[in-house]
Amino acid sequence: MTEQPIQRRRSFHWGAIYLNDTDCPDDFDIDFHDGGGPVRSTAAHVAVEVVHPGTAEPDESVVTLDVRSAEHRVDGLPYEVAFDVPSGRLTVGDADGEDVLVLRPGRWLLQFAVDDPEEARRVEIVVSPLSGGMS
User: Fold this and answer.
1) 55: which DSSP letter?
2) For 6-129, which CATH superfamily applies?
3) CA 62 – CA 72 distance, rounded (Å)
4) What is the pLDDT of residue 34?
5) Where are the domains of the chain?
6) Torsions phi, psi of 75, nearest 5?
7) How far apart are CA 47 and CA 38, in angstroms?
8) By three-state DSSP, how is residue 92 classified?
9) What is the pTM of this model?
10) How many angstroms from the chain centroid is the CA of residue 73?
11) What does each C-alpha distance from 115 to 77, 87, 89, 108, 126 come to in angstroms?
């Protein structure tokens, strides 16, 4: 497990933060046109919708992203996804840049909080193991 949290402050030019196993196929399979809320997932991808730079002034399109790990599920985060990370490497970012969270291979709980479900400018993600412990 990575020792340091991921903290980024930048625009996400596709209007989303993407998470996937580093070994997953490149074919992105989430449709943002269905109005399904700020966090969407499939078997291979998770996405968090954030403010799109094309709809906001440049200084208003910056997103603060905080990603951290925890030993167990935490309270107070309204969205969550159980997600397989078979390689043990979870990619977080977009086409402009990404970070890799090193985990043990297996199934993980990804929990999310956003400041605005329609145009998030602050995203918190907590990653915890679904079974066993962190390594």
Assistant:
1) G
2) Competence, DNA-entry nuclease inhibitor, ComJ (2.60.34.30)
3) 30
4) 63
5) 6-129
6) -90, 155
7) 8
8) strand
9) 0.89
10) 16
11) 11, 31, 27, 23, 15
